[in-house]
Amino acid sequence: MVYQVEGNIILFAFERAGILDISVGDVIQVKGFPGVHYTWTQHDMQLMESNPDEDIFIEVSRVGENQYKAKGLVLK
């Protein structure tokens, strides 16, 4: 049996330990998805500090054939 999920958004999880020293204006890229980059903001910094136990994801949407764009952060 095959189940198909509709949508054009992907969430990429990453570890907090990998970005401990991140600063506002730094860029996160997703390897294997050309053009996907997310610039860290002051709001992101506050969100991380306010939610220390949440998992972090970069939300990426497909905008064309093999074209993707980072939309923002998601905490869960």
Global outline: globular
How many distinct beta strands?
5
Major sheet, described briefly?
A: 3 strands, antiparallel
User: In DSSP terms, counting alpha (H) and pi (I) runs of 4 or more, how many helices?
Assistant: 1
Read across the widest sheet, the strand sequence of neighbours is 1-4-5
Q: C-alpha Rg, in Å?
A: 14 Å
**Strand-residue fraction?**
35-45%
List low-pLDDT spans. none
User: How far do the termini sit from each other?
Assistant: 30 Å
The arrangement of helices and strands along the chain is EEEHEE
Mean pLDDT: 91
Can you tell me about this structure?
- It is a single chain.
- By secondary structure, the chain is mostly beta strands.
- The protein has one domain (9-75).
- The chain has one helix at residues 42-50, and strands at 9-14, 27-29, 37-39, 56-64, 67-75.
- The strands form two sheets. A three-stranded antiparallel β-sheet has the order 1-4-5, with no helix packed on it.
- The longest helix has 9 residues, at 42-50.
- The N and C termini lie far apart (30 Å).
